[in-house]
Amino acid sequence: MEPSDLRICADELYAAPASEFVATRTALARRAREGGHKDLAAAVGKLAKPSVSAALVNGLVREHPDLVGELADLGDAMRTAQANLEAASLAQLRPRRDELFARMLDAAAQAARAGGRAASAATLDEVRATLVASLADAAAQDAVASGHLTRAIAYAGFGEVDLAEAVAIEPVEAVERGAADADPDEGCRGEDRGPLRRRGIRAVGDDETAPVPDEADSEALDAAARRNADRDAADRRRIDAAQQALTDADRGSSQAQLAVAEAERDADRQRTRVDELAALLDRARAEADEAQSRLDEARAAAQAAQAEVDSARRALEALEALGR
Q: In sequence order, what are the residues at sequence separation of 6 or more whose Cβ sits closer than 8 angstroms to the Cβ of residue 180?
């Protein structure tokens, strides 16, 4: 293959094992340069090596497309529920999210072990944060699905996910816009056009040409665009509010669960203490009964001894009386 398309090169590069990333990048840049594509060679040489967590997510995209597809569907469903403030729907989707995350994190951990290095807890936390961000933000979802992540991403609980320097190449939407103007002899024919194509969204350049609007149409389109922008902004505020409410509820639930767990532990400690004190009380009672028995025996012995003393004294007194 002649690497005359940056995206094709990025697909090959980010599919390479981490230990072979630099060597693969060097080889791709050299191949492009030898093919007369100096700009491409320079662009390939600037592609950043992914972090460990980003590489694991990229691996999920390639090795487990079924799981990534489930993640995309779940993200669509959760964002729709958030936009409509459907708290019940979000609650119903949470178990599905947790189960999917468990499978994806397990797959990532297995991939790390297969690569000769177990993933740390911190790395898996970054993978999970990236999956959460993918659910929260459509742009983050497309970034994950690209398979070109260079670093982990995270959702702060409101607003958009920060994707600065998180993806190796230009976002898919920009690639799609440029596709219609591309020279069919440059680059590779029939390349995958990314998450938008895979999810069935048709882009300009897919066997159709975008019409050039006249001035009246342009004004109407501008007005419609402004209305859409206003509506999108309102929707975003609703989503942010719903997400913040969900975050607050999750935080409150977590704190409540921690309080319950601590109360249960304290109750167990107190029950154990009560049992210990009850055992001590039983033992003390038994010792008290035994002491009382010894006391009673001692008193009886003392009474018997006193009786013998009295008897002896009387006998002595009788003898003394006879002697007089």
A: 204, 205, 209, 210
- Cα 301 from Cα 298, distance rounded (Å): 5
Rounded CA separation 168/50 (Å): 9
CA-to-CA distance for 230 and 268, rounded, in angstroms?
Answer: 56
Tens of pLDDT along 226-281?
665 666 667 667 666 766 776 777 777 778 887 888 888 888 889 888 888 888 88
DSSP state of 158: S
Looking at the DSSP bridge assignments, the partners of residue 149 are 167
CA distance 108 to 96: 18
- Give the whole-angstrom CA distance, residue 96 versus residue 81: 14
Which pLDDT tens digit goes with each residue over 223-236? 555 665 666 667 66
Alpha-carbon span 63 to 61, nearest angstrom: 6
- Residue 75 CA to residue 83 CA, distance in Å, equals 12
Coil, helix or strand for 314?
A: helix
Return phi, psi of residue 304, to 5°: -65, -40
